[in-house]
Protein 1
Amino acid sequence: MPPGHNIFQQLVTKSDKFGLIVVYPQVFMIQLEPISGFFRRERALHAIYPMRMLIVCQGKGFLCMNSGDYPLLNGRIFFIPEEGLVRLDGEMSSGYWLSFSSLLYAEFLLQHLDPQAKNLFLNLSFRDLDPQKSSKTYNLLDQLKREIDHKRDMSYIAQYLSLFLGFTAGLDGYLAALTLDDLQQVLRFRAILEQFYKQERSIQFYAEGMGMSPGRLNKFLDRVLGKSLTVLIKDRIMREAEVLLLHSDYTIDQIAEILGFEQTTSFNTSFKRHKGMSVFQFSRLSIS
């Protein structure tokens, strides 16, 4: 399966056009649990998945790793590398223990190309959130917990987690100024866009999915994301085009059809306008 090509879809056996059927695996790839009580460093926290975060709502004591002991402070979020046991020594009045798979992290990296995102879990790091950001973080976690318990589609969970990581790591500066309701709306839009960007271009379609009028949706997107729906769809299509050109065996004609272009020439024109080079030139560069 090509990296980043809708990583929660497996391509198997046959289908009508390219000999492929898309199915969603039923494996859940995230663990989120409230955490509280007294802890001693002799006992490690259990994590199902390699990417780990500890969110301290109220606590005192230390997070203990091979690299040292780190104070548990209210509103502190730890980003914990894959290697090493995680131990607590102290009291957690309230907090969250989150772990998730490398596949979910890969979706976050596709949306955040800066080195800070890539290095987020390379070494142990933490951020201290102010009370306002802390409150938003806890509300987002409570909602994420409900989505996990209701076994929401994993592509939706991936979008939620990507937004949560971008917010808590400070990588998406625009999110910090948004209200909790705005954050939830951004999440909903991202999930709809991710599911339908290849087939749907109409603002009416996305407006109905968001429960808004087309005019209100465009104003909302311009306010919170600084782009129109047309630009957001085009950006997502071009990002997927680059992934398919780099990491799949599809022909250019097939990629154009997968991405909803009626003519390969239209695909090439859009790609050249976006990337500054033709599809063929980009493919040649990737080979070299």
Note: Residues 131-149 form the longest helix (19 residues).
Protein 2
Amino acid sequence: MSEQEQAGIETSERAGSIDTAPPTRGARLLYAVCRFIAVGISRMLFPGPVVGRENLPSSGAYVIAPLHRSHLDFLIVARISRRRLRYLAKAEVWRYARLGRFIERLGALPVHREGTDRESFNRSLAVLLGGEPLMIFPEGTRGHGPLVGELREGAAYLALRAGVPLVPVGLAGTERSISPRFHLPRPSKVRIVIGPAVTRPAGSVGNRVPRALVRSITAELADAIQSATLDARALLSITTGSGLASAASMPAVSDHNDEPSPKNES
């Protein structure tokens, strides 16, 4: 990226004064309308249940950590909750000021993918401390196949700093949701599995986060995403809820018809 392009993005970000405060009533309404439309379309194109909603905190902040296999993963993961989910989007989008401002109102936060983006980290931390859920793909980029790639440590470090749980999400079928030839949505069945939350060990409190703890939580998160992904793939390959791939027992399957309303929308 040229220095001129970089300056243009930074100017657009400043002009938009990235909002990390809890959503206003208008912002919640806008998100609800857009989510209703987008998630409704995704359910028609990519049908499939959500499993394990009881593992999702009903209120407060948490970090959602899904497997990443498709450009559409964030849209499919949005099914898991009616709450506004904050998420990271590449900063280049903010070159188009109106588009950047619009997706920002829908929960997006800009991130510069080259190197360490301290400003993006501070915004993400502010969002979590404000009580909102934040979606981060810990692999950092789209991968291929059923095996979870090496995780970056940012998601674990952020969750530890904010003192919030990490919620692993396994996906199956999303890799086929985009045509590799035409790069257009391709109807396919998907499965979404929410695994048990990964939390900070009891007694480890404070803002200082040891590197060893970050590595340990990152490894635990990788195992949790892998387990949820294997369960999602097993559900995709069978017509009943038996014969799951992981050792963990599988909670009841739910779909949009029995999705619980959140206790706290703020």
Note: The domain at 3-258 is CATH 3.40.1130.10 (Glycerol-3-phosphate (1)-acyltransferase).
Protein 3
Amino acid sequence: MAAKKPAKKPAAKKTATKSAGAKQPVAKKTAAKTTTNKPMQRTARQSPYKMRLVIDQIRGQSVNNALALLAFSKKHAAKQIEKVVKSAVANAEHLARAENATLDVDDLFIKYAVINEGPKLKRWTPAAMGRATPILKRTSHVEIIVAERADGGGR
């Protein structure tokens, strides 16, 4: 017995509200250009779980407190995260200078800090009876955004 093929549905009719040949002018956006940068370190050779232990300590802190905590932390992840925080502060200074705006570095705080999982490096190690066992060497993406506090006070 041959299986029956389902009947094709008729194509939906397109209804034109305007004349077919007329093109509508596109409205240009005149809003002020806002540039945001996301300082990021990609594929840091540290597992995301270990990096998140450190990033959770500095999220929401003022930049000065965060850098002090990272400088004296024993974790290897702290060195990687410290580089990204310093880069974020430098980017904020550069952006303020380019826009001719005032920026007090002491009022900056860590607004957004997240660790995402990067690509895994796949390796193999010998196992019993001539087999091989996979090893996944995990990597992380560090992403930090700093902003200026509205009240101007640290946390």
Note: The helical segments are 48-58, 63-71, 76-98.
Protein 4
Amino acid sequence: MKTIVSIAVVFIFVALAGIAQQQVAVEPQSASETAPKVPYRVVGTMSQLMVDIIFPTSDDIFYIGRKPPSNEAEWGAIQRSALTLAESANLLVMPGRARDQDKWIADARLLLDAGNLAYKAAKAKDYDAIVALNEQLVTACITCHQDYRPNYRRRR
């Protein structure tokens, strides 16, 4: 089931990239028009991104030790999860989602960097490198959650 969800998420990213490349030429705007026209629109909520994309893909990286990949298909699944995780950082900084242009962007960059390194390690089938990235990924998650989730890690 996880593989199907991962494949679906990757397919969505590829489709969105294809749509973005098929833009028709837009006439130049006058200097007084400051709002840029963008070829995308926000579909999911922040909660949906976290629950449906970021949590499952980060879990694939966090818990790789439970069942280390042993064949091409399993390594491919880890690669897809790592790539999706890295690209999800770009979804977090889209206009309409970015909470600010300072901490939010810096926090998303931590996720992008960790996901990118995990993707490179998965492509190289470097299990030890992925395991070593767990702390960096934990830091990316905790940093953002401490900055933007009220009462994060506070006892009730």
Note: Confidence is low (pLDDT under 50) at residues 13-32.
